[in-house]
Amino acid sequence: MSESVHAEVMMSFLVSEELTFRIPVELRYRSDDPYAVRLTFHLPGDAPVSWTFGRELLVDGVAEPCGDGDVHIAPGDQDLLSEVLITLQVGSDQAVFRAGIAPLIAFLDRTDKLVPLGQERSLAGFESLLDETLDRILAEEQSAG
């Protein structure tokens, strides 16, 4: 049986130095996918956009800059540690979001109570679920390509 942790936080979408607006962002963590966190951005006038990345990336990113590839997370101010910047990259396009650190830490604390960091592999049936998920992803990529 899968359990989940859900939170909704307000983040600032940094369109440019002159233009920033606040949007609701849904955070979700599921015990049947214990390594991942899903963020769903609800942008005005557009369909929701979801990004999934490693929970550990979010844990590390609240304290220090981290991330490779399409997702980078870093404290907004190393001295204050009150905000986090989440940068998402698609090709040459980039979106930057700023969030308060407190709701992210509260969310991560709840995920840790559900599945403690480092204990993800101990979940019954996780290996077979991982194999099934990887097979599905590969099949989808082959049919799309």
Mean pLDDT, nearest integer? 87
- What is the overall number of helices? 3
Helix content: 25-40%
Beta-strand content estimate: 35-45%
Rounded radius of gyration (Å): 16 Å
Which sequence of SSEs, written as H and E, runs from N to C? Answer: EEEEHEEEHH
What is the straight-line distance between the termini? 34 Å
Spatial order of strands in the largest sheet: 4-3-2-1-7-6-5
- Low-pLDDT residue spans: none
Biggest sheet overview: 7 strands, antiparallel
The shape, in one word, is globular
Features:
7 strands; seven-stranded antiparallel beta sheet; 145 residues; alpha+beta; globular; 28% helix
What can you see in these coordinates?
The structure is a single chain. By secondary structure, the chain is α+β, with helices and mostly antiparallel strands. The protein is 28% helix and 38% strand. The protein is built from 3 helices and 7 strands. The protein has a 7-stranded antiparallel beta sheet, with helices on both faces. Strand 2 (20-30) and strand 3 form a beta hairpin. The chain is globular. The N and C termini lie far apart (34 Å). The mean pLDDT is 87.
